[in-house]
Amino acid sequence: MSSTMATTTRRTQRGAPSLSRERIVEASIALLDEKGEEGLTFRALAQALATGAGAIYWHIDDKDDLLDAACDAIVAATMAGAATDATARTRIRTIGLGLFDAIDTHPWVGTELARSPARMPMVRILEALGRQVQALGVPEHALWMATSTLLNYVLGLAGQNAANRRLARERGLGSRDGYLDSVAAMWSQLDAQDFAFTRSMGALLRAHDDRDDFLAGIDLILDGIGLLQQDATPLPETAPAPPRA
Q: Is the pLDDT confidence value at 241 over 60?
């Protein structure tokens, strides 16, 4: 072996791991978790990977591609973790709670899903929920209504929960309890006649469990879907014509 070849071999063996799309995505997720979308730049990513921006562009088209890949990695792992041999109802609860926790841990995921509804991360979620709704025996005419209701509830509430935590940090309120205390204090100042219900909920606000409430909402939706299983008659597209005299 020539000295040049030996030197090249030693450099390859001793150098940093070869760059791959997977490594880039992992580093991107770490940056997004730490600094948010604004902190994810190709310069910061290149620094984290100890490489040049040109090497990253070999694997990634642009920032949109990078965000989509990072989001898809989180969603794919969540869907894989929700695979069980349980009933369809239990699998739906597992998928929902998995997404709730994933968006709580990675708040940027909720924003990315809302911004790219037609791309693979959202398709994975739709497919996972849709298959379980089918397994429940929902009639075909009601499949989209039932699945989209679940989808909107899961992503909407998970996103709101993550937004609440972000607001607490931005306003210097610290933990979730600090944020809820501030909301409860504002509610307590509302007019007692015009906002009687909201005022009464203030005392319960801090004590509630976000995950338990989230699952209770899924159960309410599933109970409603259960009524669809009992009636396979398609809903009329238009109001029936009045009977002739």
A: no
Q: Which two tokens stand for residue 82?
A: 């929700």
Q: Which two tokens stand for residue 187?
A: 């509610």
Residue 35 in 3-state DSSP?
helix
DSSP state of 155: H
Neighbouring residues of 75: CB distance < 8 A, sequence distance ≥ 6: 99, 102, 109, 113, 121, 124, 125
The pLDDT tens digits for 128-162 are 999 999 999 999 999 999 999 999 999 999 988 88
Of 24, 44, 42, nearest to 34 (Cα)? 44
In one-letter notation, the amino acid at residue 126 is: L
Is the pTM higher than 0.90? no
Cα separations (Å) of 147 from 92, 125, 245? 10, 10, 42
Contact 26, 49 (CB under 8 A): no
Nearest residue to 218 (alpha-carbon basis) of 81, 109, 97, 126:
97
Residue 108 structure tokens: 């940027």
Q: CA quadruple 62, 71, 168, 31: dihedral positive or negative?
A: negative
Q: Name the superfamily (CATH) of residues 88-229.
A: Tetracycline Repressor, domain 2 (1.10.357.10)
* 182 Rama class: left (phi>0) / alpha (psi -120 to 50) / beta: alpha
Using an 8 Å Cβ cutoff, are 142 and 233 in contact? no
